[in-house]
């Protein structure tokens, strides 16, 4: 009989410090990206440079958030919940903005 296979640990691990920063950056990317997309749709595709700046800033925030999320996984004995959430959110925003740039260059 194998002992210790069903052990439960009641020790709470602290959150990864870089995961907190990654989540803040992902929230900033979401705020800027959502506002930029809303203004672009509201302007019927004829948005100004301020909307382009919001989109580019959202792309940069999401890429930096991906970097911090990846660095959070290098911390040992930590809770990676915020890092996982931020990598998911910022990864979706990065893919969205890269697709928008490709569509803009082709069309």
TrEMBL record:
InterPro entries: DUF6142. The chain crosses the membrane at residues 21-41, 47-73, 85-105. Keywords: Membrane, Transmembrane, Transmembrane helix. This is Calcium:proton exchanger.
């Amino acid at each position: 009989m194998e002992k210790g296979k069903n052990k439960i640990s009641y020790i709470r691990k602290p959150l990864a410090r870089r995961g907190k920063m990654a989540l803040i950056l992902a929230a900033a990317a979401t705020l800027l990206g959502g506002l930029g997309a809303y203004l672009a749709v509201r302007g019927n595709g004829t948005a100004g440079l301020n909307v382009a700046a919001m989109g580019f800033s959202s792309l940069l925030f999401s890429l930096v958030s991906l970097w911090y999320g990846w660095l959070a996984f290098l911390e040992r004995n930590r809770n990676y919940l915020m890092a996982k959430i931020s990598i998911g959110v910022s990864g979706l925003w990065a893919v969205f903005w890269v697709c928008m740039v490709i569509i803009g260059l082709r069309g």
